[in-house]
Every structure is written in structure tokens, then in C-alpha cells.
UniProtKB/TrEMBL annotation:
Domain N-end aminoacyl transferase N-terminal as annotated: residue spans: 29-99
EC number: 2.3.2.8
Entry's family note: Belongs to the R-transferase family.
GO CC annotations on file: cytoplasm
UniProtKB keywords: Acyltransferase, Transferase, Ubl conjugation pathway
Protein name per the record: Arginyl-tRNA--protein transferase
Compositionally biased spans, kind Polar residues: 296-319
Amino acid sequence: MAGKMRGEASSSSNSRKESVVEDFGKRRSSCGYCRSPGRTSISHGLWPHSITVDDYQDLLDRGWRRSGCFLYKPEMERTCCPSYTIRLRASDFVPSKEQLRVSRRMQRFLDGTLDIKKVGLLEEPNTSKGSKSLGHHDFLSQPSKVSLSSENEEQNEVEKELHYLSFQIDKLVHMFSGNGDFPPGIQLPEASVKIVSQGKRKLLVKGSEDLLYTSNIAFQIASVIRRKQSSDENVLQLRLSKHCAEENGLSPSSIAEKLAGSLNQVIEISGLSIRACNGHINFYCTNRQASSGESVQNAVSKSSTGCGSGRNYSKSPQLAQEKRQRLQIRLKRSSFDPEEYELYRRYQIKVHNDAPDHVSESSYRMFLVDSPLVFVSSTGDGTVPPCGFGSFHQQYVIDGKLIAVGVVDILPRCLSSKYLFWDPDFAFLSLGKYSALQEIRWVKENQDHCPSLQYYYLGYYIHSCSKMRYKAAYRPSELLCPLRYQWVSFDIARPLLDKKPYVILSDFTKLQNGKLCISPVTENDMEMQHDGIGQEDSNDIPINEDEEMIELESESSDEESGSETSGLTSREIVDGDVSKILIGLKDSRLKFKDLQSSVGPTKRRYLEAQLNKYMRVVGSELSERMVYSLD
């Protein structure tokens, strides 16, 4: 079926086009995810002079990714942070409560019921470059230090406070994790601050009539830590791990006290006090008059407008009506746009703290404008969407102002999200999450024009990097097995990745009676996995994981010939048949078997070795279809 769709998508306008690539071999670089001091990120690189959308789609489905005109694929057994291609079928997507809140917040902003006026620098979570690469959508917004003037229902005011408090807790949790206060390798839960109903307050101890909100995040964190520590242990060891956690300050009570103590230093809402109580983080109203006679919502409204908050809520319906705004989402082919570049420059400097002299026009062009994809125009026959196939920039414009740009590739079977940059003044709209929802929606809407277009690719999922785990929030998602290139449900993959960063996912393809079922490994699987490990030399990769081009530094290496896999070990690889590989020499195109007689034995053996490595990383089908350039 996939082959049939690929053939259908190859329109007559694309029939004379071809993919021409140079093989750069293995590359080493510093890692933008784990920030290790050495060059521990290892991948294979290709430099395409041109590449068809069909071939790039198939490369994506073998774990490849592009940065500008450079293609790369992580060496999963050897790299420090194994990166799994992640996707979801757009028609199956089910938005979470948080994703629905993001959509509602944007709609309220456009309707004029969420009129935001900036009075200070909007603060974003502390993110590294690696957290935003290969996809995006991992940025939360902080609604602090802003002036709000809106006609809004009281429950919306409460929602803003809850969102702000939850965000501040999440920031602290990630900060503690980064400082080593929590064990490494755990998937941190998202904080949720909830209203304490009046009925529940009456049942609590004296003095809790002032209790407004509470969060049980400490219990969730402690539970995740216990599961991590007690995996594969018996009941006795489980109890011991629980006792050990309490002694090490990782019980719900100690975690809650740690968070509450830090929150008191960063929360900027007057009229609220924060205390830990039996593992809960509680938020109390210090305005006795409000708490004794008014609803929780009124108490929140009063505390939000108290001294020091800098916030003011207006009830003028005329004001809301006058501030209605229009959002336009424009899709255009990838090209240099001065307005987009200025927005990108602001974003990199303010959000990623890049030095201004590092955000040049040339680096922007190489990273987000240049593309090797051969454009395919629409044919009107249901095989190509109206916009065509290729590389695009999706502009988000509000009342004529450009606020965000999503860089995407539209391919025969998917929309592949590459990068997003946005106006820091609009961080409160959670544009990363909002743009992901719009890209998923775009795929759904265009399936009528192109039935083969069904998936949304979010780039790489890196389970060992907590800042990249947001991608799994778009459900139901699948991860690509690095061995057999089969798609495996994230729900199956997650418990495996909790135990080790590199897993052959297709070993565990289904659940039986609640337990994972292991698939047998065949002789062919063994050959597919070990792409000549220990037989090649490694160089620095000239990119930093979809973020920026870096200076190339070469080094020779013949090490690492025996990495472990989940049940597999590296072994000698029998060279495949490379005679059918298509070779490009000047203006000629010929199979390698037709070229062998014209080269000497030494050069032939060298070329055969190079072609074997190339065939293993791109697959035999693509190696026969793409042109291996010797120019």
C-alpha cells in the first residue's frame, strides 16, 4: 500500500527529477541534549544536491532527518542520546485538557476577552537549544508581570491563576531535576493546581477555611521515583526502596516542603500564602474578609488585584468588542523573508540567549530556508495537496503582525514539523503547542485532497532528555524501531525506555495479558541492525541537532565494535550486493556493476566498502533509486 501511494504521489512533474546525494559517513559532535563535554553525538550524514519528496519520505521512515540541506541519522547504539522518530496519525489524534486550554486561550485573545498588555519582559522556562530542535512545541507560557484588562467570567480569572501556579511548580520541579535533587531518567509529571471546594474545606482542620487551592504533585513525583527504584524488585525490596526514599528526602512530605519553600520566593500574587501539609502544596487566602463570606472565585479576583500584583480586571463590554482580532495562517514555499528573519533573530536572542553576532542571515538561510527537496506542484487529481509537496513556512499573522513561523516539510504521507520561532511578546499564547495543533488540523483537512497524507511527524523523541518528552503528549503516537523500522505504540515503548535509552522496540510489538510479548530476532534483522559498526571512521557532524551549523572538525576512529543491544550483540557483517547501486559520475548515471571494469582493483575495493556502508544506512531500495554522486 505504501509503495502504491508513493507511486501515485510521484506526479508527471516529478518524474524527471532525481535524488543526488554525497555520503559524508559517520560524524561526531557535541550533544545539544545532554550537554556532555565530549563529542558524544554520533550520526551518519548525507549531503543531497537534490532529493525527491518520495525518497525523503522513505528516509524519514528509516530514521533520517534534515537540517537545511544536510541529512543525518543517529547511530542509535553508539550515540549518547538515542533519538527515535515519532509520529501520530492525524485522524486518531485526541487533544488533552491542556491542549484544549491552549486553543481556548487563543480564541479568547482573538475575541478580545483576553486583552494582554505587556508591562515587563515575559519570562519563559529555562530551555536549552536541544529542547527546541527537531520539531518544537515544548514551550510553556508564564502569565506573570502582565497587565490584564478584560471582560471575563470569574471562572476564567481562576483558570489564569491556576495556570500560573501550575507553571511555577513545573519550573521548580525541572530546576530541581536539573540540579540532581531527583533521580535521573524519570519522566516528571505535569503539575496541576486545583480548587478546594467549600464542602471539602469544612471537613478539614480548623483554619483551612482560608484554603483556596491545592496540588498533589509531590505524591506523583514520589510515586514515579519509587517505580523507578523498584523496577523488577520483589515486595520486600519495594518496601525498602520506599523507606530509602523517605530517608533521602524523597517522600511526598519532604518534596512538598521543598517545593512550597521555593514557591514562596517566586510566587508574585498578593493575598496568597503557601504551605506544605501532609504531602500537599496548599495555597491560602490571607484576605480574611473574602474567605469568610465570599466564593473562592471572588477571593481569587480580590487577591489578583491586590497590592503588588500589577493586575487589573475591567468589566467593560465595549472594550472587549473593540479589541476583536483576526488570525491568519499562511502557507508559503520556503524562501528568504526579511520580516521572518527579524522575528527569528529576536526569538533566538531572547528565548535561546544566543549572542547577536551568532544569529546571522547566512546561518538562518542554511538552517531554515535552504532545502534540497524537489518541489512537486498540485496536479488536481487527488495525489498532491493544493499547496504541492516540498518545504514550506507557515506564518501566523494577527491583524497584520507576524507572531510565529512554523518550518515544515509536506511529503506524500505526512507533514513533518521541523522548527518554530515566535515573537517573545506573545509567549502567553503557548504558540508552540498552538502551532502543533494547527499542523495536525492541516493534515486532517488536506486528506480530502491527498488521501495518502495521513501522518504528523514531530521529529525526534529523546526519552533520556526530559525537555523532549513533551512530544509524547500528542496522542496516540508511535516510535520508529531502530532495527526493523516498524512503528511501535508509545504506550508499549515507554516502559522499555524507562529502563534503558536504547531499545529495539519491535522486539516488543504487543501486549498479552498485560505483559509485553517479545518477537523473535531473525538472521536478516541482525544484518539490518549493525550498519558496519567498527568499520568506518567518524567525523564531527556539521550541525547541532537541527539547531545550527557548526564548524567541521575531522577525526579518525576505528573504535566501538561491540556495542550491546537489547538482546543483540554486534558481529561481523556480510557485505551485501552493491552492484545495483546507482552511481553518478559527471553527467552519467550507471549501475556500479557497469563501472567496476573501468577502475583498478584497489580503488574498486575501497569504493565497494564505501557503498556497503551507504547501502546499510539508506536501505537497498533507496540505494538503487537515489544517485550516489562521485563528482
